[in-house]
Each structure stands twice: as C-alpha cells, then as structure tokens.
Amino acid sequence: MYDVVSIRRSNPIEDVAARFGVDLRCAGRRLVGNCPFHRDGQPSLVVYPANQSYFCFGCGAGGDVIDFVARLHGVGFKEAAAMLAGPKAEQRIQGPSKVVRLPTPARPAVLSPKETDVIDAAVCFYHDALWQSGDALTYLAARGISAATARRRCLGFGCRGLADHLRTRGLSLAAARSVGLLSGERDTMLGRIVIPDIRGGRATWLTSRSVDGRDPRYLNLRVATPLLGLDVTRSDQVVVTEGPFDWLTAVQWGLPAVAFLGTRVSRVTVQALTRFRRVYLALDNDDAGRRAAAQLAAELDGRALMVELPPGIHDLNDLGRLPDGREAFLSCLQEANDRKERRWDSDDTAPPPLADAA
C-alpha cells in the first residue's frame, strides 16, 4: 500500500507536468497549457495547484498527479503510485512514450475583430438564457445578487447551442474556439454563471462560475484578464475587490469598483489604478488577499488605503449577504480613512464617502 496523500504532497502536479515539457502559464490562481494527451492546438489543460488536480477541457482527462502519470505511461493507478513513491520518483517518471508535445502559440495582446464579435454575441446569448434558468437565478439570489444587478451588468448563464447561434449569425467558430468559448462544438461555459467585462458598450471578456460546485469554480476566456469593471467606473475613487462576486456586491451597493481577479500584482494593474485619486483595497480576508493588498498599497503609495473587513467575514460578497452589509462596509471605508489620517498625522483631509457612482 502507498501513502497517497504523501505521494501527492511530494510530487506537485505542476512540477510533474513541467518535466514532460508541458509549458504552463499563470492564469489567476490556475495554470494553463497544451494538453499532452491529445493534439491540443489550443491551451485546454488547466492545472489547479490549490487542490493539486488537473482537467483538460479538450479531451476531458482529469484527476490528480497519480492519474496524470498513469495516463502518460499507460499504466494503472497502483503502478503510477509506485513510480511516484520514494526519493527517486523524478528518475522513474521521465520520458513517457504517450506524450504529444506541440509548441504553445503566443496569443496576440489585442483581440481580433472576429474574437470581439463572438465574445459580445456569446454574452448576449447567455444573458437571454439566464432568465430561463431557475437554478441560475436561485444561485444569484443566494449570493445576494439581485435581478436588477444581473440586468445592469449583463450576467448570463451558459447553455447549449452557442455554436449554432454563432453560425446562424455568420460569426467565426474558429474565433470562438480560439478564445475558449467552444471546444469543437462543445459549449465550455455550460451550466455556469457568466460575468462579462464591458468596454465601449461591448463585452470583450468574461469569466464564469460553476453553480454546482464542480471544478474549476471559475473558468475564464483564454485572453488577457482585465481589471473587471474598469471601463465603466467614472469616479476618481474606487474599491478594489478580489473576486467577481465581490465586485458585483460593490456595484449593487452603488459603489465604483473593479475586481482584481486574483492576487497576482502586475505592472499593468498598478498602472491602471493610478488614474484614481483614492484606491480602497478590499481584498479577501486571508493571507493571500492581505499580501496582495499590502503589495498594491506599497506600489500605489499614498493613494491606496487597506480596508479591514469585519471579523469573521471572508470577502465582500459574504458581507453583502448580511442585511446591514452595505452600512457595515461604509463604516470599514471610513475607518480606513481615519487610519490614514492618524498614520500620516497630516492636515490632508480625508475624502468624502464614495459617491454612488460606477
């Protein structure tokens, strides 16, 4: 018998995948790359370091590191566990014969017109489908998101038929596959709440959240991840949240907000936030969120304030599900202003409370 927990701990799945030439790139808290189990012309493989699992949205392969090695070598679970057990595991799992290695094509930084068209059309298609799904509407209500907010932010629900919908409108299925809306004819967003980013009146990006708890919880398009909501934020002050539902909560409260969509601080993110006079950092109340908030605060210097959520509250959406959540959060914003005044001991007057604008 083998200690499966120990094997998984000693063999991070991302490291094992890299040994076989799988080029993994960061996508929020996930890693994406070309699947080694089929001729994957697009990055369909998603690795989840947090729970040490993987799933391919092209061929459907998925599991843990033991399953990954078993598939690569064409052996059973026990044989793969034996290969991974002990100090010489790295030597025993080199050079499988079943790996299909293809170069990973670099995506252009800017969407093509065809890609923009299919994203916008998909968001409209999913938005219409939302009102036909009782499960989706029940899920949104449970997360504290109203129908009015769903309409205002053009939320949707992934349903079958996107390929036919695009085809009848003369739109490119190849572009839909390129950005990750389709895998062949299969709808990748099926059964998910769809949350788009709107720029210039059109949807240019989206993320989706499973409603039944299956992994991955969030699935993004294969395009650059934006600061969600940046283009429609008009105030000179902004609340920065971590996740899409935190952002929806802030928007529903009438606050100007953007979603960070992860905890990795990039130069692009920092530059985008410099347009605001005051930046309230309301990331998740955990170690990763606090580290990211501290890093952003350091990069943004005096314009950034770290917001402390009430004890026992993990994120803004948690707070939004409480009857007095908005008032509690406004108190948190005021406390952040008060802390800044005490810390700097200056004559600089704290800004007024955030305007009801987004």
Q: Would you give an account of this structure?
A:
The structure is a single chain. With 358 residues, this protein is α+β, with helices and mostly antiparallel strands. The protein has 3 domains: 4-92, DNA Primase, Chain A, CATH 3.90.580.10; 113-220, DNA primase DNAg catalytic core, N-terminal domain; 230-344, 3-Layer(aba) Sandwich (Dna Topoisomerase Vi A Subunit, Chain: A, domain 2). Helices cover 38% and strands 16% of the residues. The protein contains 15 helices and 15 strands. The strands form 4 sheets. A 5-stranded antiparallel beta sheet has the order 1-2-3-4-5, covered by helices on one side. Strands 6-9-10-11 form a 4-stranded antiparallel beta sheet, with helices on one face. A 4-stranded parallel beta sheet has the order 13-12-14-15, sandwiched between helices. Strand 12, helix 11 (244-252) and strand 13 (257-259) form a beta-alpha-beta unit. Helix 6 (113-130) crosses helix 10. The longest helix has 20 residues, at 325-344. It is globular and about 65 Å long.
Tell me, briefly, the overall form: globular
**Mean of pLDDT:** 86
Order of helices and strands: HHEEEEEHHHHHHEHHEEEEEEHEHEHEHH
Radius of gyration: 22 Å
- Number of distinct helices: 15
Order of strands across the biggest sheet?
A: 1-2-3-4-5
SS class:
alpha+beta
- Overall domain count: 3
Rounded to the nearest angstrom, the distance between the terminal CA atoms is 58 Å
CATH class of the largest domain: Alpha Beta
Low-confidence stretches: 88-92, 94-106, 344-350
Named CATH topology of the largest domain: Dna Topoisomerase Vi A Subunit, Chain: A, domain 2
The amount of beta strand, in percent, is: 15-25%
